[in-house]
Amino acid sequence: MKITGKIEEVRAQVKAWKKEGLTVGFVPTMGYLHEGHQSLMKKAVENCDRVVVSIFVNPMQFGVNEDLDSYPRDLEADAKLCETTGVDLIFHPEVDEIYADGFCSFVDMNGLTKELCGKTRPIHFRGVCTVVCKLFNIVTPDQAFFGQKDAQQLAVIRRMVKDLNMDIQVVGCPIIREADGLTKSSRNTYLNEEERKAALILSKTIFLGQKLVEEGETDAKTLLAKMRENLETEPLAKIDYVEAVRMDDIEKTDVIEKDVLVAMAVYIGTTRLIDNFIVS
Ligand code: PAF
């Protein structure tokens, strides 16, 4: 497995693979990799001949008061996990390799970003789209892998790929959870012992929501009220949002039906966690 911070080296390697007729899978990440990321890498290894993982904490997708500086980093552990999972190349650029002096071009989206995380983090998806577009241009993968944990991000990337005619198949992968239900997230590391316990209220509420839907609840207002009520039983939890939107356009819906995304963001102390389910 190779590690490089240089765009030109990634391009040369991918070009050589493509010349041999090999397919390329790509997993973009911000590092501090866990089993959630590993599930994406495994899927990429399964689907494609060669796999590239990018590790880049993208400053453009963090708001001013967010956790850019404290975002956890551990390249050595990340490299080990990539190697054992069968990744062929890690792209780990410095910020100025991605955003050179004078950088002033962006990918922005009018739809899909005004609800859910886009409401609380107004510049976030512009940063995500811009960096993912750049990474796609550098890596030129056949397939790119994203987790359903960031369901709005998955919908936004699918839309960008469609709107901008990118010749890339976006593969969505299921949420990976800890044994007790908490979604795997690099940000779980911010939680102290008491908060870690309190954070279970998210998955418990997601499972409750899923159960209510399975039992026949189709009214979004009723479902969301019950979920909110459940979240409010945890004193350390502060709700950012609990919403039901259509997965394709991330617009609110009154009716719970197939392909509706029921999503939440909740602060546990100062840590903002997300979780969701999609009605199947
Ligand atoms: O999901 C993430 O880790 C990031 O938003 C991504 C897709 C790597 C872009 O920086």
Structural key phrases:
280 residues, 9 strands, globular, 10 helices, three-stranded antiparallel β-sheet, binds pantoate, six-stranded parallel β-sheet, alpha/beta
Word description of this protein:
- With 280 residues, this protein is of the alpha/beta class.
- The chain contains ten helices and nine strands.
- The protein has helices at 7-19, 35-47, 75-85, 95-98, 117-120, 124-139, 151-163, 193-198, 200-214, 220-231; strands spanning 2-4, 24-29, 50-55, 89-91, 143-147, 169-173, 237-246, 260-268, 271-278.
- The strands form two sheets. Strands 1-4-3-2-5-6 form a six-stranded parallel β-sheet, sandwiched between helices. It has a three-stranded antiparallel β-sheet with strand order 7-8-9.
- Helix 3 (75-85) links the parallel strand 3 (50-55) and strand 4.
- Helix 9 (200-214) packs antiparallel against helix 10 (220-231).
- The radius of gyration is 19 Å and the shape is globular.
- The N and C termini lie far apart (38 Å).
- The relative contact order is 0.13.
- The model has no long low-confidence stretch (mean pLDDT 98).
- Bound molecules: pantoate.
- Residues 28-30, 58, 61, 128, 131-132, 150, 153 line the site of pantoate.
List the helices and strands and how they pair.
Elements: E1 2-4, H1 7-19, E2 24-29, H2 35-47, E3 50-55, H3 75-85, E4 89-91, H4 95-98, H5 117-120, H6 124-139, E5 143-147, H7 151-163, E6 169-173, H8 193-198, H9 200-214, H10 220-231, E7 237-246, E8 260-268, E9 271-278
Parallel strand pairs: 1-4, 2-3, 2-5, 3-4, 5-6
Antiparallel strand pairs: 7-8, 8-9
The structure holds pantoate.
Pantoate binds at residues 28-30, 58, 61, 128, 131-132, 150, 153.
